[in-house]
Amino acid sequence: MGNATHKQTGPSPTVSGLSASTPSEGLFSTYQNGHFFCELTNTGAPLDPRIDLLRQRLNALPLDDLRTRAAQAEQELYNLGITFTVYSDKNAIDRILPFDLVPRILTQPEWRHVEAGVKQRVKALNMFLWDIYHDQNVLKDGIIPRELVVGNSNFCPAMMGLDVPGGTYIHIDGTDLVRDETGRFLVLEDNGRTPSGVSYVIENRHTTLRVMPDIASGIDLMPVDEYGMRLQNALSEVAPEGVDNPQVVLLSPGIYNSAYFEHVFLAREMGVPLVEGRDLVTENDRVYMRTTAGLRPVHSIYRRLNDDFLDPEAFDPSSMLGVPGLVQAYRKGNVTIANAIGTGVADDKAVYAYMPRIIQYYLSEEPILSNVETHICAEPEGLAYTLANLDKLVVKPVGESGGYGLLIGPHATKEELAEFSSKLKDDPSNYISQPVVQLSVCPTLCENGLENRHVDLRPFAVTGKDTWVLPGGLSRVALKRGSLVVNSSQGGGSKDTWVLAS
Fold it and tell me: Residue limits of the Circularly permuted ATP-grasp type domain (predicted)?
């Protein structure tokens, strides 16, 4: 496992296409990486023999065999009820997340680099959140514009002066990473509110081992099954002081939430009750769970609903999902909420642009994982650059997620560019822009065999007293040819992410 001071710059890959050891016949015989960095055919030197072994085993499979196994995997996922909800599609609300059987593989040096970078980032984010809700030195020292923080819709004045246990605001973090054409890992965005997708990491591994045991045989991989235990332990560690056996619960909005399967899955993995707001009550600034044996104290809440819905007395009075009096119990120190209220400031896409400075400010270190170059349209220079280069940039609304509301300039029509230009001029503070990163690709089973498809990576970090990063993470894949949008709501799928054990 890596440590937080590890500062390697990543592997030194080659980008010349298939390895000479790849057979000229079989599944890989027609595969082309398209001049992108490929996760299976471009590797650092020296070549890890286990990657070559994986390719040889996959290459030896008849295409029909792989298709049969893929169908078996899909049926298993369907039987398990592993679905997500697409609210924008009235004809197909519940869907199985498409799963591609060809795994993505990371070596130990690659993983140690990612792990160290994620730990560094989570530490800086927690220090940043503590500061902005206490002394606000980062604002006084001009490291980040004050209005970008206190004027942010996710900034929560109710959190001012509140001492959260261990200084941990982000207990569960999902950092979205991409690799560029050189194989370098870059941070695309931070997810410090209620990051989703970890259930797919674990189920993808189970499915791969059931459907392709011969492919994985003898390849020693870092396990992913301990996530639930790690999360339960971390939430117990940050429970209010003086509690010997903390009661942890997972608070869900309910069955109609897009990630409800994951809520059920994680509650089972953690061994804790899955509750909704109606199952909890506050008395004398303490939180209790309704049970058949009466009220039972609750000490840590892993919440999977947004701030606005948590407590109708503190936020939206029309919310039927939250718990009246929860925020008061929180402020009194009688319950821990993970992730903390108000963490959305830290994963705002405009604040993201300042993360290299934030890391340097709090840790006196250079970022282990660099940001993608980012232009803030709220700033005159950023807006001018974006408007002048709109056809070359990706433009994102700062408050959206899931791939909604963005513009990919090189793929946009003249009409779309003109329309987005007007949006930028009307509301520049709502947007940032970034260059188009030539995302890495991975061989993916398509209609005509193996083809390259773009992927990203979301490692999940769990923080209690210390930070632990789940080996690998969620590799999302853009299943449409040429698409750079990997989000499940936009037609993406996922892959099993293998981290070699040594």
Answer: 103-478
Are 477 and 84 spatial neighbours (Cβ–Cβ below 8 Å)? no
- Phi-psi label, residue 187: left if phi above 0, alpha if psi -120 to 50, beta otherwise: beta
Q: Which residues pair with 290 in a beta bridge?
A: 295
Verify that 167 and 196 share a domain, yes or no. Answer: no
Could you tell me what percent of the chain has a pLDDT over 70? 90
Do 469 and 323 belong together in one domain?
Answer: no
What's the number of domains the chain is made of?
A: 3
Give the per-residue pLDDT at 132: 98
Residues 201 and 324 in one domain: no
Of 38, 70, 37, 34, nearest to 55 (Cα)?
38
Local confidence band at 9 (pLDDT 50, 70, 90 cut-offs): very low
Please list, in sequence order, all residues whose beta carbon lies within 8 angstroms of the beta carbon of residue 139, skipping any fewer than 6 positions away: 132, 145, 146, 149, 150
CATH number at residue 305: 3.40.50.11290
Residue 350: exposure state from Cβ atoms within 10 A (0-12, 13-18, ≥19) = buried
275 and 395 in a single domain? The answer is no
Domain identity same for 217 and 294: no
Buried b (16+ CB within 10 A) or exposed e, 479-502: beeebbbbebbbebbbbbbbbbee
The predicted-structure confidence for 301-327, as pLDDT tens digits, reads as follows 999 999 999 999 999 999 999 999 999
pLDDT score of 5: 35
Whether 14 shows a pLDDT value over 90: the answer reads: no
The whole model's pTM is what? 0.89
